[in-house]
Amino acid sequence: MKDLTTDHLIPRSRGGDESADNVVLACQPCNVSRGEKGIFEWLGLKEKDKVHRLVAGKYLKQLLTLHEMAGTLDIAKDQITILCARCALPKVCEDWGTVRELTCFCLESILSYSK
Length: 115
Fold this sequence. Notes:
Blueprint: E1 4-8, E2 23-27, H1 28-34, H2 39-43, H3 53-70, H4 80-86, H5 90-96, H6 104-107
Antiparallel strand pairs: 1-2
């Protein structure tokens, strides 16, 4: 495949590192269109299950580690507002009509923006 680029699963601008666990190959158009978005934020609810299982596994491992470090791993569904209060993606949930609902976007709530 031509035009493959290095894509950071957790974007560097959002705390991602240069480790092999955080890097995959992606076509340039996908890498550019994703920008600094999380994978689920980029794909949306309808397309989220189309992530290749190896990429999804690496990404979920990265998110798990971030949630462990933040102490948010054991938050129950009825405590979702704890994640909502810290989330960098409230607009995404508003756009999808999932405010205060447990979705894949909650996994990415741990990501921060450096802006």
